[in-house]
Amino acid sequence: MTQPPGPSGPYGAGGYGQQPPGPGGGPYGPPQGPGFGAPGPYGGWPPAPPPRRRGLSSGAITAIVLGSLAAVGVVLFALAALVRAGQPQGTEKIAFPSTLEDGKYHRMDGNAQVEAQERQLQDKLPSNGTAKVATYSASSSGDPTAGGLAIAGAYGDIDVSSAKMRDDMLDGMRQSQSGEVVGGRREFTPGSGEVEVSCQLTRIAQGSTAVYAPACAWADHSTAATVLEIDLANTSPGDVDLEEFASVTARVKDKVTMPK
């Protein structure tokens, strides 16, 4: 029976690594058609194509990113102290440009899952706080194997210390069903040292495949957000440079925050 296509994700359409069944119902059987399922012109059977390597499909990547963001968001936006009703609001807001990191990452718009995630997080905020969620692909075409960034944050008047807010956001990653925190949390002051960033490494698995994803958080008096990177090349902890990703996060903060 033909399966309907999976939902579209921030990095493109796809399901969870399913392949069309081949003869005998197996997922990796040779396709039917000329040259397959019948002897060749000299009585021999043409060799079947090699089995496809199981990996992360676009749908799996979508599930990984949004699953991790959901855990972050529940902790972040459950904090009643994030925005105090009746107090002056912060002076900055979060807005997502079309590209980040000099055009390396491209904002993926119009994804129903991302929009639903933002609405869900917004519902947890007081009326004068604003939730912001976005995903960026490392490919302008949304190629899922290119990976990308996911950002979940909010702006308002934050009445919690920066260190506590960053810790609370990253603690949310520990509640993700798809991720497992690896190693300890580290603190950085990249660049000019004006932005404090907390980072940790998360092992995110889908089926038999796992990637190691850095996540970093910032918080100040107006804005707070977590930035998560998905890169399929990061198959071991040694593939990830947390200090370098802290610098990426500081640059992202600089680009997505602006005066109201």
TrEMBL record:
Q: Where is the composition biased (Pro residues)?
A: 20-33
Say which domain of life the source belongs to.
Bacteria
Q: Where is the composition biased (Gly residues)?
A: 34-43
* Parts of the chain that traverse the membrane: 60-83
Which residues does the annotated region (Disordered) include? 1-53
State the UniProt keywords alphabetically: Membrane, Transmembrane, Transmembrane helix
What is the name of this protein?
Tat pathway signal sequence domain protein
